[in-house]
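DM from R.C. (forwarded with permission)

"hey, sorry to bug you on a friday — could you get me a structure for this? deadline for the figure draft is monday and I only need the backbone to look sensible"
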Amino acid sequence: MADRSNDPHALHGVALALLLLGLLLGIQPITTDVYLLGATLHEVVTGTAPHRGGAGVQRLFRAIKSEPQAYGPDVPEELAAVLKRAMHREPEQRFAT
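My reply, with the result:
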């Protein structure tokens, strides 16, 4: 299998896997959507995906076990707080909508 860790289209598979896992775990889709929106914004702001490298399943488990992202001084504190909340490990800590 080819390494797709840097393929931007591989993210769609990871997004689908996150959504399906969330449904299996009883997580409401809206919290998954908020997470994915936060992950997309993270990539726009930093130029890198929050969970890089490896196959989609490996990224999925990194996302589940992830610690809050660290942002440098070039990211305003308010924006960093929004990103961290949107990608919070606990769905109930994310934005409601």
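R.C.: lifesaver. The helical segments are 10-24, 29-46, 56-65, 77-86.
me: no worries. The chain has a mean pLDDT of 77.
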